[in-house]
Structures are given as structure tokens and as C-alpha cells.
Design the sequence.
């Protein structure tokens, strides 16, 4: 038995050398060699809990192409990215579904995504143009806007600028999902960086001094702390925040499920709006590229994509599509005029540096 | 009969030659010799802790010997595993398996490959032999000390041993019960003609059961008075 | 796990030791929080557990057996079910709920920590009672009577020192140590009851997947490395303490019939009915309440005007919707994982226990102790660490393994191994060697001896061990959570978490989560109650 242990130790020590390959951001991806996954007749899709991948959707796809689909569930967009990076060019999945414009570039930059051949005609022009840099690599399948959500029943006056939130009236009443670990949080972060320009860091510094509730993810902020959402009904609700970061159409969703009544209001404040477009991408090294592309095409087909507002609680990317009117879904949702998109004009390296700086700021 | 020495030995059924067993320190068995003939019951007397049990355990193979040999009917058993030696053993307290009833315990003694009806017949006969007719369905828990030892004896005999060792099996029993059991055991052993070694610290018991008495002293056996 | 450490080492360029000492403040906070919580939980558990154990021992059968079974439930309750149960408890309090919910232990700890602490105590109370009660109920009251007549025992204090402390002390310390370990590595409870609180385990689980990627978020990798090492270090100390205590716990007293003991105890302070009944029944209720509430909650559906009772949540859970895992799929998957876990853990544990026992018997004490400690190592490694280790470590070597249905059971089996050994070893020690010696003299070879003698006599202990392994696997959360996220399947425990994590705009989401929790809880509880029937009074008493 002792000898087995010794062998184990030696083996692992020896292996440590092999584990340290760097994933560099290459200039030219044609140099990158991806390890192609063996085709086993199954299309493996890495996604988070996207509701629109219903059984019927998957069944239709399988019936049409004869290929089974297997869903691997990660936590959120961030986890998807991490998983893709971990695979490092030798992926065990074929499609990554759910990376948005602020995450996809990280994977593209490391040559982990291959160009797709899916026909994007019939998709909304705005979506395609805003996400122009990425539409070669990713197929947009839904989109939405990130806004501040404020509980109108809990405050006397609505904030008119982000700076209001750093004032005394809002001390301890703002819940922000952390940009480091949450996708809406990150979107919000990008919006402030671009929208507030030079004022961005001072704003964050002031904000962090005003006792905000920084949570790991969107759901803690929205369900547990935000007093204007459905969280009020849930067990474990605390309700100490009157404002939080969520989608501009979240009040619409609230209304939809509550017979057109909600006190939650979306505010499209300058410097606080982000246009989030979610993409499906084929990984470099995928097993059956044709099947992957067919899957993505199916996702943006009129039959499947029109259901986005119901299934996935996001806007459909189809040309001319809008939120349904029933129950005040459309009425309570705000469509901002201006919004930050993708990486807000930064490149990947800068964003990474910003995140690291934010992390340091958070600690201090 | 004299104890055997190395040259000029007599042919006997169970034989131990120059057994040496040592735990840390002085030898418990120090070049011990013993020979028992077929049908002979030998008692080994000695105070507690002098190594009587060790002797028996060495013979049956539960205690490895540093040097020396054990012979049964001329065959050298020294390197053999306990289960192949074919020597029966009665422990101080009856070792009855609590997960089985009386029949179940006796079944363990029946040799392999014996078909069920025949095995049952053997079991009944064995119980008869030790005076416990009809005890098959009884549970172990309800047995008295004497009954337990009888079951143990029956079971040991079922295995068709070529010799039997008894490690103070009656010390936990009281007067009359002990006497009765001694008589039963002696009768059964004599009927089967097995060589037997009976270890005890009670001289009266030794006289009652054995043909010959030996004293254990300083790791060896000496002749004693009958 | 070593592979994971290696990888993190390579990626960050810092050695594990450096990483620990240089831990960024979030890591240090996590360490402080975890340690603080765990210590408080351990203390609380012991303080509450002792009177309950004593009161229980003074009870008369069959009530004692029933109450004991109830009190023992929380221990095998899946942690996620417990978390959900306590959330449901908050709901009962109506408008006070959010307030109580928000209480925090100390300012830094974040809201919900008081609730978390109560939940931890709840969980481990049954552990403490389980460990302590057998020693109490076996101790012959004649010792105490004798002691009263001696000068050393005439005062309460004297008796406490000479009798109660040596009797209960080691057991209590062991219970405290184990509580510390479990509380320290708790994931589900922290995640749901105090979601903003950062403990090492939470950090490892939630942020771990972002670590180990070369050239990306190196700071994260450093953090994870430091956290992992810190966690292992603390656990190592805790486990070492528990181990030493366990060994001292093994002194033998003349076993008296439990009836005599009961009468003896009943004559003393603990026998007083006013004290005895409320304590034990109270403890039993405390144990059962959260679980019953979940059942209730699974039927409550939110409507725009309030609440209705309905099966919508259940329906949703069964349908699974949106390509998600359905209740039945997760159910079978969980059972499958659990069965394989037992199939792996039981033989492995048996083998290990036999080795240790044999070594002890042959006098190779150092070797025995070494293997014994080694088998405790999985306790040092928390669920998240095992999950992370598989994720990071295996990914490079054998990425295909990640998707394999074998990965999770292996992880579970590793984690539950110490428990299996802990249950089997005392039983093996208690097995008189005469039985096998006798069987040998009857001519039974080694295989037959095993089948006809050793196995039947060790079977009760083996059944208990198997049951514990099964229950553990059914409810395991930490490792499952980390690993499952790379595969198609899901376990019931993770499924509860998944449902809870969904945005709850749709009012059927929450009841669906509750429904899954009910199924998980029921399966585990039933198993546990069945297990209690196997458990002889003698088998446990040191876990």
C-alpha cells in the first residue's frame, strides 16, 4: 500500500510539468491547432439554464436531422466561458450557447471559436449591426437591455442620474451583482465604463463607499434583496434594497406574471444601459460542424425564436419582433435609446485589466 | 508410556516434536515433545498462563511455531493451514455462531458435498450421541453452558476429526454438570477411538477424563501421577 | 486533488504556501467566517446535544427508540433539503421572517448567518446525540452509585469530574470536532441561507471553475489555490483532533442492560419528566419541522392575489421543461449514482478496515494508525475540493472522463469511505477471533469462513455502513454540484439547487424546487428509518 502512494506522488509530481500550457491570445488564428472531438453522433451543447430549449424544440431538431442533442449545464455565461477556456482547444462539447457580447470576445481571441456558416438573414438589423464584430463567430439568438430597476413604491423620488445612488438617501439600499461573477453585473460595469467615461472610477469608488449590497449573482440581488420583484413572495427574502441591476424588461415580466401590476420600474439612465446580445457559437474542434450549424439555424428560425419572450424572458432576434402585449409585458418594459454594446469599445486585454482593478478596488 | 525422544521413537497417532513457541521473551514452549496414541486421552495439567492453551493452538495450527513439528498418523502437519489438518478443537467457552440455530451450527461441521437429507441424518445422530436429541431447532441463546459445550462437541465430531483437542472446556461449569459432561465426552471419544489432548488446571477433572496425565513445566511436559 | 493543486501552482506561478500566506482579503474573510461559524456551530451543538442525549437515555422504550430515530433524521438529511427547509421555516414567521432572516452574527458576516448557525446546529445535533447517547445508555449505574460513596464523588462537581467527564468527554469532543468539520465545509446551507456570506467552501465551489485557466484571471487562480490549501490545513487539524479523541473513546465499561441504566439515570436529575419529555420531544420536533414545512411549501403556488394550493409545482418538476432535467430523470440518475457509490465504497472500506484490523492484531500499530489516518483523508478534503480536483485535475489528463457517469460515484465513494471504515472497524474489532479459529478447526477454508462466519456476523455493521453510504450519496451536494455542471445528468440534490437558482418570475418555479426537495428528503428519510432497525445498540457509538 505504501508503494502505491509513492507511485501516485511521483506520477502527479511529474505531471505538473505538463499542465502548464499557456492559452495565449494569438494574432492569427490560422496557426492554432484545435483537437477535434470524436464524432459520436451526439451534439453536445454547453449552455446555462436557457428555457427556450424545450423538449419539443430538441425533438424537432432530432427528428429533422437525426442527431441527438445533449445539454451540458453550466451556471451562467461566466461559467460557460470558463469551461470553454478550460477545454483550451480540445473541447468536449460542440456548441457554446449563451455567451453574450462581453464574454464571447474572450473565447474568440483565444481562437477557441470557429467561424460559422449560418444564414442570418431575417434577423433584426440593429442586432446584427451592433454585434457586427462578433456575428461571424456567433449566432445571436436573443437580446435584451440591462437597466437599473427601482421599486417605485419604496422611494419618494426616482433617481435621475447614477450619482443619485451615491447619496445618503440610498445608503445601503442598492444591490449590485458583482461584475466579477455575474453577467448582468459585468454588463452594467461595461456600461458605466463607457457611459461615464472618466467619471467611471470615481463613481465606483463613491458607490462602494455608500454601503451597497454586492452580491455574487443576479438572483441574490434580485430575489433576496430587491423589494420590488417577485422575491417578496419567496422564503428567505430580506428586501433591504430599493434598486438593483436587472433587465429593462424585467418589470414587464413581473407584470406579465402578476396580472399587469408591478411597482418595479426600469430606468434607462445614461451610463447605465447595456445592450446584451446572446450568442451561440461553434467551438473550434467541434465534432460535427454541420450538425452544430443546423442546431443554431434551428434556434433562429421563426418558429423557435418567436418564443423567446415566453421561454427565455428575452427579446427575440427576428426582424420586427417585439415583446407580447398581454398582461402589460410590453407596457412596463423600457426600450432605451442609447446603450453600450459588446465590449464598449475596449479590447479584451483592457477589460481583463479593468476587472482586475475592480477586484482590487473591492478589496480595499 | 514414556515420552518420545528424538531417536528410537514409537509409532503413535498424534505427535509433537521439539515444539518451540516464543512471544517476546522466554519461550512458552521450549522444545516440547508429546505423543498420543489412537484412542488415548491425555490430560495436560498446569497452572494458568503456563502455555497449555498455546500448546493446543500450536497443534491445531492457530499458533505458528518457531521450530518443531506436528505429526498426525505419520503426516507432517507443520506447514499446513488449520482447516486442512483435520483436528477438532473445543474452546473454553462454546463458540457457537449467534446468527444460526443449533442445526445451523452443526451444519458448519458437516463436510462439504454431503447432500441435505444425509446431512440432516448425521446431525441428528451427532446430537443423539451427546445426549441432546431433538435440539435442532433450538436457538443458541437459550442453551445452558453444558448444553452449549455438547453442541460444540457434536459439531466438532461431525467434521470427522482425526484427533480432538480440548481447551479447559468444562472450567465454566459447576460440579455435577461437569461430571456428567466429562463422562459423556470420555464415552464419545473412546467410542470413536480418537487421540485426544485435554488441557486443564483441575487435577480431579484430569483424573476423571484421562488415561494419562502430563504436567506442563517450563515449556515442556513431564510425566505426572495418575 | 493533488492534480488540481499542481495545475493551480503551474498556472499562477506561486507555490501553495505562498498563496496561503498571501491570501487576498476575500480569502482571509472567507477563512475567518468559515472558522468562526464552524466553531460556534460546534459549541452550540455540544451544548444542546448533551442534555438531549442524557434526557434521551433516561427515556423508556419504545418511546426512546422512536424519538431517537426522529432525532437522528437530520444527520442524513441532504444538506440542500435542510437549507430549503429552513427557508420555509422563515416563511412561517410571516412578516417577522425577513427580519429574522436578515440577522447576522457579526457585521462582516452578512445577513442570514444567524439562521445559518441555527441550521448547522440542527444538522449536527443528531450527530452529537448519536455519538454520545450510546455511551450514556450503556454505562452501568452501579459505577455512579459506588462513586457517591467515595470521597471523590460526594459533590456534584466531583462526580462530574470523575465520572461524567471521562465518560462523555471524548465523545463530546469527537462530536464537536466532527461538527466543526461539517460546518466548515458546508456548501448548500451557506449558499442558500446566507448567500452573501463567503466561506472557503463557497469560494472554491463557485469561483473554482474560473481558476486553473492559464492566462485568464490569474488572481482568481491564486485565490482558489490559497483557499484550498487553507481549507485543507484547518480540516487536517480538526480531523487529527477527532481521531485522537475517538481512540480514547474506546474504553470498555461493563455493559449494563439499558433498562438498568435508564432507571439509574431516571433517578437523577435527567429523569424528571418535566425535563425529560420537553427536551426529547422538543429535539425531535426541531428535527422534523423544517422537513415537514418543505412538504407544505411544495403545494403552495403564488398567485397575483396571494397564495393557492395546487399541484402546479409538482407538475412542473415532473415535466422538467426547457430541456432541463425532469424529476424522474434526476431520480433514477441519483439512485444509479448512489448504488454505484455503495458498490464501490463498501468493498473498499471493508478492505481498508480489514487491513487496519489485521495490522492492529499483528501488532503493527504504526502501520495501522497510518492507514487509519489515510482513510480519514477524504474527510479533510471537502466536497467542493474533490469536485474541483476532478474538474481541474482530470481535464488535462483525461477530459473524456469528465462526462463519464463513473466520475460522480467515484467522488462520492471517496468521500464516504472514512465513514464506512469507521463503522466497520469497531465491528471487526468486536468480532472475537475465536469464531474464525473455530471455523478453521472445523475444516472451513478461507472463502467458506468468510461467507459462513465473517460476513454473517459483520453484516449488520455492513448494512449500516451501506445505508450511510447510500444516504450520503443521495444527498451529497458539494462535489456533485461542481462535477455535474460538466455533464448531462443531474442528481436530485443538484436539481433542487438548479430550480432554486432559476429566476422565479414564473410562480411555479419555487414550488417545483420544493417538490424535488420533498422527493429527495422522503427517499433519504425512509432509508434512514429503515436503517435504524438494523442498528443494534452496540454497533454505533463512535459513529
Sequence:
Amino acid at each position: 500500500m505504501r508503494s502505491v502512494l509513492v507511485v501516485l506522488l511521483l506520477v502527479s509530481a511529474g505531471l505538473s510539468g505538463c499542465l502548464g500550457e499557456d492559452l495565449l491570445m494569438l494574432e492569427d488564428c490560422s496557426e492554432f491547432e484545435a483537437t477535434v472531438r470524436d464524432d459520436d453522433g451526439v451534439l453536445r451543447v454547453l449552455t446555462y439554464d436557457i428555457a427556450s430549449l424545450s423538449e419539443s424544440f430538441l425533438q424537432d431538431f432530432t427528428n429533422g436531422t437525426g442527431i441527438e442533442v445533449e445539454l451540458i449545464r453550466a451556471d451562467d455565461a461566466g461559467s460557460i466561458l470558463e469551461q470553454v477556456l478550460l477545454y483550451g482547444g480540445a473541447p468536449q462539447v460542440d456548441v457554446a450557447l449563451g455567451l453574450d457580447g462581453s464574454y464571447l470576445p474572450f473565447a474568440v481571441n483565444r481562437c477557441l471559436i470557429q467561424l460559422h456558416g449560418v444564414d442570418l438573414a431575417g434577423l433584426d438589423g440593429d442586432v446584427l449591426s451592433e454585434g457586427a464584430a462578433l456575428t461571424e463567430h456567433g449566432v445571436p439568438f436573443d437580446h435584451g437591455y440591462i437597466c437599473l430597476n427601482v421599486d417605485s413604491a419604496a422611494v419618494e423620488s426616482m433617481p435621475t442620474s447614477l450619482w443619485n445612488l451615491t447619496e445618503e438617501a440610498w445608503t445601503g439600499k442598492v444591490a449590485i451583482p458583482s461584475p466579477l461573477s455575474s453577467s448582468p453585473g459585468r454588463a452594467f460595469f461595461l456600461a458605466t465604463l463607457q457611459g461615464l467615461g472618466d467619471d467611471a472610477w470615481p463613481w465606483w469608488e463613491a458607490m462602494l463607499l455608500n454601503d451597497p449590497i454586492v452580491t455574487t449573482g443576479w438572483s441574490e440581488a434580485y430575489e433576496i434583496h430587491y423589494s420590488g420583484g417577485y422575491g417578496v413572495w419567496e422564503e428567505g427574502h430580506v428586501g433591504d434594497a430599493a434598486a438593483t441591476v436587472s433587465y429593462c424588461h424585467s418589470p414587464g415580466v413581473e407584470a406579465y406574471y402578476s396580472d399587469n401590476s408591478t411597482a418595479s420600474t426600469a430606468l434607462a439612465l445614461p451610463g447605465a444601459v447595456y445592450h446584451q446580445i446572446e450568442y451561440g457559437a461553434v467551438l473550434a474542434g467541434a465534432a460535427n460542424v454541420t450538425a452544430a450549424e443546423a442546431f443554431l439555424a434551428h434556434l433562429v428560425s421563426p418558429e423557435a425564436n418567436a418564443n423567446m419572450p415566453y421561454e427565455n424572458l428575452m427579446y427575440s432576434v427576428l426582424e420586427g419582433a417585439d415583446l407580447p402585449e398581454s398582461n402589460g409585458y410590453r407596457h412596463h418594459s423600457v426600450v432605451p435609446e442609447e446603450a453600450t454594446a459588446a465590449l464598449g469599445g475596449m479590447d479584451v486585454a483592457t477589460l481583463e485589466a479593468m476587472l482586475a482593478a475592480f477586484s482590487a478596488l473591492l478589496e480595499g | 508410556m514414556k515420552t518420545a525422544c528424538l531417536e528410537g521413537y514409537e509409532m503413535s497417532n498424534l505427535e509433537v516434536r521439539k515444539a518451540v513457541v516464543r512471544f517476546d521473551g522466554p519461550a512458552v514452549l521450549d522444545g516440547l515433545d508429546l505423543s498420543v496414541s489412537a484412542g488415548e486421552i491425555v490430560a495436560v495439567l498446569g497452572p494458568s498462563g503456563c502455555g497449555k492453551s498455546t500448546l493446543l493452538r500450536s497443534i491445531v495450527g492457530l499458533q505458528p511455531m518457531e521450530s518443531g513439528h506436528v505429526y498426525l498418523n505419520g503426516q507432517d502437519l507443520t506447514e499446513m493451514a488449520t482447516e486442512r489438518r483435520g483436528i477438532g478443537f473445543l474452546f473454553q467457552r462454546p463458540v457457537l455462531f449467534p446468527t444460526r440455530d443449533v442445526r445451523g451450527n452443526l451444519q458448519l461441521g458437516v463436510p462439504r458435498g454431503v447432500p441435505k437429507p444425509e446431512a440432516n441424518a448425521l446431525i441428528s445422530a451427532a446430537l443423539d450421541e451427546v445426549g441432546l436429541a431433538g435440539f435442532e431447532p433450538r436457538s443458541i441463546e437459550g442453551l445452558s453452558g453444558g448444553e452449549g459445550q455438547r453442541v460444540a462437541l457434536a459439531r466438532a465430531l461431525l467434521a470427522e476429526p482425526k484427533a480432538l483437542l480440548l481447551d479447559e472446556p468444562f472450567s465454566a461449569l459447576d460440579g455435577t454438570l461437569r461430571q456428567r459432561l466429562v463422562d459423556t465426552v470420555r464415552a464419545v471419544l473412546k467410542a470413536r477411538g480418537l487421540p485426544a489432548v485435554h488441557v486443564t488446571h483441575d487435577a480431579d477433572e484430569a483424573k476423571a477424563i484421562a488415561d494419562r496425565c502430563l504436567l506442563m513445566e517450563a515449556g515442556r511436559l513431564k510425566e505426572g501421577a495418575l | 486533488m493533488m492534480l488540481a493543486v499542481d495545475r493551480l501552482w503551474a498556472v499562477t506561478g506561486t507555490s501553495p504556501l505562498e498563496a496561503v500566506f498571501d491570501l487576498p482579503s476575500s480569502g482571509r474573510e472567507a477563512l475567518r467566517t468559515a472558522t468562526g461559524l464552524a466553531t460556534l456551530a460546534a459549541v452550540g451543538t455540544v451544548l444542546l446535544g448533551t442534555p438531549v442525549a442524557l434526557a434521551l437515555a433516561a427515556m423508556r422504550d419504545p418511546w426512546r427508540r422512536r424519538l431517537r430515530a426522529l432525532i437522528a433524521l437530520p444527520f442524513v438529511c441532504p444538506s440542500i433539503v435542510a437549507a430549503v427547509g429552513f427557508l420555509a421555516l422563515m416563511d412561517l414567521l410571516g412578516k417577522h421572517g425577513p427580519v429574522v432572516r436578515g440577522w447576522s452574527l457579526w457585521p462582516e458576516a452578512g445577513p442570514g448567518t444567524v439562521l445559518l448557525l441555527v441550521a448547522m446546529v440542527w444538522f449536527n445535533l443528531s450527530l452529537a446525540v448519536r455519538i454520545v447517547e450510546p455511551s450514556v445508555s450503556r454505562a452501568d449505574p452501579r459505577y455512579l452509585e459506588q462513586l457517591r460513596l467515595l470521597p471523590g464523588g460526594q459533590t456534584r462537581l466531583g462526580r462530574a469530574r470523575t465520572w461524567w467527564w471521562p465518560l462523555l468527554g471524548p465523545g463530546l469532543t469527537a462530536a464537536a470536532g466532527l461538527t466543526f468539520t461539517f460546518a466548515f465545509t458546508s456548501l448548500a446551507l451557506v449558499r442558500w441561507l446566507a448567500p452573501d456570506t463567503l466561506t472557503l467552501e463557497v469560494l472554491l465551489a463557485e469561483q473554482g471553475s474560473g481558476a486553473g485557466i492559464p492566462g485568464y484571471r490569474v488572481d482568481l487562480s491564486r485565490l482558489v489555490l490559497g483557499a484550498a490549501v487553507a481549507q485543507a490545513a484547518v480540516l487536517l487539524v480538526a480531523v487529527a483532533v477527532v481521531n485522537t479523541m475517538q481512540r480514547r473513546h474506546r474504553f470498555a465499561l461493563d455493559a449494563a442492560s439499558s433498562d438498568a441504566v435508564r432507571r439509574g439515570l431516571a433517578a437523577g436529575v435527567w429523569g424528571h419528566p418535566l425535563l425529560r419529555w420537553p427536551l426529547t420531544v422538543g429535539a425531535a420536533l426541531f428535527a422534523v419541522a423544517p422537513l415537514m414545512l418543505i412538504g407544505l411549501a411544495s403545494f403552495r403556488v403564488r398567485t397575483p392575489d396571494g397564495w393557492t394550493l395546487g399541484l402546479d409545482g409538482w407538475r412542473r418538476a415532473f415535466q422538467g421543461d426547457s430541456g432541463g432535467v425532469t424529476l424522474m430523470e434526476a431520480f433514477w440518475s441519483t439512485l444509479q449514482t448512489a448504488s454505484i457509490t455503495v458498490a464501490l465504497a463498501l468493498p473498499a472500506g471493508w478492505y481498508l478496515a480489514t487491513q487496519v484490523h489485521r495490522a492492529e492484531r499483528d501488532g503493527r500499530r504504526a502501520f495501522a494508525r497510518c492507514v487509519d489516518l489515510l482513510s480519514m483523508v477524504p474527510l479533510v478534503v471537502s466536497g467542493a475540493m474533490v469536485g474541483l480536483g476532478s474538474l481541474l485535475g482530470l481535464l488535462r489528463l483525461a477530459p473524456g472522463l469528465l462526462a463519464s457517469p463513473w466520475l460522480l460515484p467515484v467522488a462520492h465513494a471517496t468521500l464516504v469511505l472514512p465513514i464506512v471504515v469507521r463503522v466497520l472497524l469497531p465491528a471487526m474489532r468486536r468480532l472475537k477471533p475465536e469464531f474464525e479459529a473455530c471455523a478453521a478447526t472445523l475444516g472451513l477454508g478461507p472463502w467458506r469462513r468468510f461467507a459462513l462466519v465473517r460476513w454473517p456476523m459483520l453484516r449488520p455493521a455492513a448494512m449500516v455502513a451501506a445505508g450511510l453510504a447510500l444516504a450520503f450519496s443521495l444527498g451529497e451536494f458539494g462535489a456533485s454540484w461542481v462535477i455535474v455542471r460538466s455533464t448531462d445528468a443531474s442528481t436530485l440534490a443538484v436539481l433542487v439547487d438548479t430550480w432554486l437558482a432559476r429566476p422565479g418570475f414564473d410562480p411555479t418555479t419555487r414550488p417545483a424546487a420544493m417538490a424535488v426537495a420533498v422527493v429527495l428528503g422522503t427517499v433519504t428519510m425512509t432509508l434512514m428509518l429503515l436503517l435504524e432497525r438494523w442498528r443494534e445498540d452496540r454497533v454505533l457509538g463512535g459513529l
In short: The longest helix of chain B spans residues 175-192. Strands of chain B lie at 14-22, 27-36, 41-45, 67-72, 75-76, 87-90, 163-167, 196-200, 212-217, 220-223. The interface with chain C takes residues 60-62, 81-84, 86-89, 91, 95, 97-100, 108-109, 111, 155-156, 159 of chain B (CB under 8 Å).
